[in-house]
User: Fold these one by one.
Assistant:
Number 1:
Amino acid sequence: MTRLIECVPNISEGRNAALIRQVTDQVETVEGVRLLDVDPGKATNRTVITFAGEPEAVIEAAVRVVRKASELIDMRKHSGEHPRFGATDVCPLVPISGVTMEECVEYARQLAKRLGEEVGTTVYCYENAATKPERKNLATVRAGEYEGLEAKLADPNWAPDYGPAKFNAKSGATAVSARDFLVAYNVNLNTTSSRRANAIAFDVREKGRIKRDGDPLTGPVVKDAKGEPVWEPGALKCVKGIGWFIEEYGIAQISMNLTNIRITPVHVAFDECCKQAEARGIRVTGSELVGLIPLNAMLDAGRYFLRKQQRSTGVSDAELIKIAIKSMGLDELAPFDPREKIIEYVLEGPRGGKLIDKTLEGFTHETASESIAPGGGSVSAAVGAFGAALGTMVANLSSHKRGWDDRWEEFSEYAEQGKRCHDELLRLVDADTDAFNAIMAAFRMSDGSDAEKRARHDAIQIATRGAIEVPFRTMEVALDALHVVKQMAEHGLPASASDAGVGALCARTAVLGAYLNVKINTKDLEDAAAVADYVKRGQAIADQACALEREVLDIIQNKVEG
């Protein structure tokens, strides 16, 4: 899985478009980082910048953004409605995929350290990156704002986590954090009443509503021993929400911020709104996603709604996303284009540059051309993907066979396993060609001086190891696919037995074909122990694949002849 994080710096300038552009231009100077959104606010005099990419590149881009903002923004002249205490007021990092929150905390502290040392920024860490419990809440860290920062820095208890403890009147301070992905999500209602929408929002949001005696709307407010109102919590954790009327659409909505979609995913919020709306005689007609959403959130939603239908979840990502969109009515108010709304797809950009983006005819012609790559390694991965796909197909068909309704989960699990295999094998199609190109690039390196010769030699050895690891991984995944195929041959839909047989032939071919690539590339690897290990483990996988293929074909033969 690609390792991606998002960075959302808020700078204290929302009116000067030319200045804002100079700051955001810094993002695009870093390779591998994509600027996703720039949202200036005139009243707040604040701009929210969003960019994403691999962690190291994102940190570099963040350093450049904060440095440029410090150069251009003078906090002595700043005014606006939003709380703030620095030229770059906050700079949170958000894990998107392939990065845990714990890892993101470490990245946030790396960023904070670099800002302190390289930019000279006074930095406080908050939320998950907080170094002290009392600094977890941003409001506490920013209390007193810019105007109170000089006095705060004079207090030893408020020494910054990184950077100078001396007040910088021009750029103030920056708060850095690691936080969960925030999803802005609106649920559409078949009413124009903002009051009723608000009531449903109170039902679902974590904060809930003020408790009353008797009638929940008009009864007297219940107070605690200190005379403060008692709050009744709502149904959903990590959800903020209000109800409002949208004149543009002529409907009321429940407007929510889902602050931790691992705790309350989008699909759970949607279903809870449906439940609470129905209790009040109101129907949910659809929903609206504001901004971007991680791919996994959409895939989880698709699986959730398929499970409710007792259908197999081992279908393509495109099908899962389609189910999620239709189930939550995400396209009710406007078209929902996954390429524009899912953060990983936005970062990926337009498709068409990979081998797997080609048509089958195009891939075949590319393979047959005079170019050295794609070659046997890519074709082995592609054949393996077909084998895994056939096993997945049999599992999906078996999951809704008439009379097998009580077995849908069993086959759904096999379909999920098969899907994981064919998805990774598709990735390996291009990875194999990339590995070959890396070797060619290493050989083209200059070797004039002794230092250049050493660098070229080391690069060739590293690239060679990569060219071994990729087909070796193809062997491992294709073997996993063979296990799925065997289960489908034994227990799957009898009418699809021949499909399982073809899947076994493809998967075994992938293993043996990839093993040829492993062995030919080990000839250029100087680490003799590593070579012996690759060959030994590779032969074991090849032997298992051949044995499994024979077992599957025997099963299929008995079914065909019987």
Number 2:
Amino acid sequence: MENKILDFLAQHLDTETLNKINFSPVPRGQKGDLAMNFFQLAKQERKSPVEIAEKFRGILTDCDVLEKTEIVGPYLNLYFANEVFYNEVFSAPLESEILAKKNIVFEFSGPNTNKPLHLGHMRNHALGISMSNLLEACGATVHRVNIINDRGIHICKSMLAYQKWGNGKTPESVGKKSDHFVGDWYVKFSTAAKAMADKSRESKNDPTLDQQAQEMLVKWEAGDREVRELWQKMSEWALQGHRETYQRQGIEFEKDYRESDFYLKGKELAERGLAEGVFERRADGAIVVELPDDLKPKNVKEGENIDTRKVVLRADGTSIYLTQDLAVAEARKKDFNPNQLVYVVADEQNYHFKVLFYCLEKLNLAKKEECLHLGYGLVHLPDGRMKSREGNVVDADNLMDELFNLAKKEVSARNAELSEAEKNEVSEKIMDAAWKFYLLSTNPRKSITFDADKSISFEGATGPYLQYAGVRIKSILRKANLKTSPDLAQDKKDSKSGLKFLDKNPAKFLGSAEKQLGVKILEFQKVLEKSVQNYNPTYLVTFLMELAQDWSSFYANNSVLNAETEELKNSRVLLAHKVLQVLEKGTSLLGFSIPEVM
């Protein structure tokens, strides 16, 4: 509708003026379908917004898209002509093309192969799933990739513990999911290291577990056959468990990149940068990069001797995350020729990515504006922060099982007639919606405390509430004998629909009662665009919740199947179908679906 109004205004105004017009939802407490404000124009023309609104009200008098206009304060509130409006609603697009020329490599998850995926990963996954889907819905080509952290001292700690105390056990022999089995040895290392620390200090000939793990890392770097074989076995155990979790969460990567495949290439890039004068050699032999002023340490006290350079390769020749990330970025540019690299990693790594993007540009591997770090806040438990080495993390699998059981209890109470398999299928969908919606309902930049009971509730701002709104619409459509798959607003003669519109236009029979739903539907495309422009799926979460609440309010006051006339009934059924289409599209972008029953 905005475009139709702008097209009309273009006959009377120049482009510069048109670009300074702003549309917005009607302010709370006011009436109308859409608001216009003219703050920019008022400032430019040195007139009050009301004076500008009066001018536009006169111009729009002959616009057949509008029924009337009304000035309320600084706003010009627009009332759409019903038939034009509802035709727009029924044909409202569910996607956008604003990113049609974008080719994006989108990295998320980034697991370590020494433990299972946990609640922190789940926030990463919720953000990665939703944003990659949203980018595609706005026309971008998206390559979902993963970086697997499969080397380093933390990996050797799990390996050393298993080597010492594993006694040949396997995940199968103890009946445990393979990544959880590996994670147990990481916790075992930490527990044993604390117990042995004092004893080791008493004997100079008895190295600590940390020292032994470091020695194992040196052997791994040297290609020691026994260490490499153990590494291969435990890595595959971890990754197999991760793959099972990914499948349950609906995640599929186009390509995995492993640190172990790129740390040597990273060293080569460090040496290349040194030869090209991009990097320099420090006195101790480390390769470093001189950072620009905006990346140098702040608040340095007078007289402090702080090196403002960043290490790219250690003095002993070992690589760090930065070294490997340079090589991985180079590989991705070759693999996909993207015009944007996106990294979904917690805010703790903000500085790392600033340095990485600076180095990539210095090496002519990628421009800084082509790189984006999509950061997010931490996920806390009600009693504090999670720590993997202490074993007090919430594993993703265990949390999903807990949510599944809570959902199944509710589903069983509400739908005793369902088979066990049907109850399981519905409960799995509710579980999926619960954690994804909850973790996306807060701005990604803010930390969040996860509350399992709140997330699974069928009431309030939750994923299950959103699903339930869709389930109720599906029930109405089944009773109306309406297929839910095609866009029947565009196919009124569908013989299987049970509705006989023939050549009648449903827009003719809808009025003010349905307006709020229609206005909300027309916002959907702009919400998608706002979400990708800000890399924030919370806009979509908020929109879907508002749409579900608008539907609930409408349905509480207006009968669909028992409407006053057959034409109104059929028109409302088609409007309900359009609401469902938007809900289903929106929830699918967030990564979950609406079941048939709840």
Number 3:
Amino acid sequence: MPGAGPITLSVVIVNYNVRHFLEQALQSVRRASEGMAVEVFVVDNNSVDDSVAMVRDRFPEVRLIANADNPGFAVANNQAIRQARGRYVLLLNPDTVVEESTFRRCADFMDAHPEAGGLGVRMIDGAGTFLPESKRGFPSPWVAFCKTVGLSRLFPRSRWFNEYHLGYLPEDEIHEVDVLAGAFMWLRKSALDEVGLLDEAFFMYGEDIDLSYRLVQAGYKNVYFPRTTILHYKGESTKKGSLNYVRTFYQAMIIFARKHFQGSRARLFVAMLQGGIYLRALLTLISNGLRRVIAPLMDAALIYGGLVFLRSFWATYHFRDPDYYDERILYVNFPLYTAIWVASVFLSGGYDRGGDLRRLVRGLLVGTLVLAAVYGFLGQAWRSSRALILLGAVWALLVTVGLRYLMHFIRYRNLNVHRDEPDKLVIVGSREESQRVRRLLAEAHVRKNFIGTVSPGRREGEGAISTLDRLEEVVRIYRVEELIFCARDVPAQDIMHWMTRLGPSVAYKIVPAASLSIIGSSNRNASGELYTIDIQYQIVQPWHRRNKRLQDLAMALFLLLTWPIQLLWVRNPWTLLTNALAVLAGRRSWVGYIPSGGGARDLPPLRPGVLHPADVHPHVRLNEATRHRLNFLYAKDYHPSRDLEIMWSCWRMLGKKQPRLQEKQSRNSVPSRK
């Protein structure tokens, strides 16, 4: 860290709601700074996850800038750069880990190459896979076209089609490149003073391309430097499968095109990018939609097909009459049965990410019970056969479970589908740190099949099953599915070496020294995995959110249909209509947080509620601390039955007038970085 002499490096990290990843990044920065004059800035863009408190408590040497809003990535970086005193400036993402030698190696290279204005390094993701955006070319119209239509992905090694990621350049050789990745931009401060700071017209994305372009235009070189590697947990600040990402990224490219190109070339570029926005948005909608409905549609097709077969089979072999059943059964009964079974599986969580077979079976059993009840209400002419319902239930169970086994086997070549056995875990670290990790897992209620500890040194520690140099043998012999590295004992460069060597077949996590969190990410486009003893809110569980919304819709429809009756019970029945319509439109929920002066700011977001937990005791005056506590308990222990209890107790208040909803500032909802 800096002393009285000149500063070599100023590290700037812009953070937005990734506290646990920021903690790990700062620990790696602290270790990489040893023996160097380094100052570190953290600019927080109004996070609500206690990032600011964590930095103040755990990293007092950091110069913290806490913004009251989210001004964007470029603005936040410029705030720190204007105060930077280093010979070099490093713009670093909060969801990264740098090697212990990264800063020294980069500084030595830049000192030896004064023509270099900026430098980027080799990056890997949380699965140990090389990230192609480590080296990029400028987005000319042709380059943008190839990226937009997917040619760069189809031909990753082509000089002609993949100029964007320079896929034809070896990842392990030093190259002059066009664009530095915004996750790690090592910049010469004198060059930055010459070409200017980040362009604040870019809110997020594009500012790294723009700055890289200006460096080259000023006569400097941008260098891809693979002699050091950093870990970049892709997807932590922005979901790349979202429409918001598509819109923000391509709008940034349009700003770049209008700024740096002129005449027909600029118009062509902008037109292509605008077309790219609509094309990628359409593809994103289709992809997201298919991802959500493909499993239910496959189940529905198989169930319906089985019912058609069972109809012919049962009519022929039981009734000895192939035409025993009316043709209407194909168009009324079977679609109804199929819809009820699939809907029951959906409501039970059988289609949720990570949903296990128990939820699938539970949904089918509930659906069968619902069908039995529906059968009793159907007129005699519309009843098919109880035998078909029972046979159909057995078929639905066999075919849906069998489909999941088949798909799992095709992908993983084993039949361990959502098994109850926890993943086989090996911890790499000292005996003391290994015991601490196991305590953290226990306190976070994470079940793992602990195989043993691998000693980080060349000698096996007490109780260790091996040393680090034999980790590959350990993974193969014990069929290890997850590795947790203790950052206090294992250097970051060793962690990245083994992640790259073992590849994505193993899940990797890192526990920073003295941290209460264990961090990892196995998918570059999805949020990372986090084991922590922090508060776990039930309201964030997808099945609870889905069931809360379905419950809201059902209650709104019920109140609208029975509105004449509600005239006798509900105060302000006309306002009840307004509230019900607002719930149907998704602007409100029947139950939400208690309104307070920021009391719910650090809790999972919810729609504003018509009612709230304090309405159960309307005559009790609550101070701010009590309101916050009630909101906290509602989010932490949420269950749909809690909403029903509140609505039942406060039925007459369902028509109470609501304050007007305030529109959120769009920029405050946008994350800080890719």
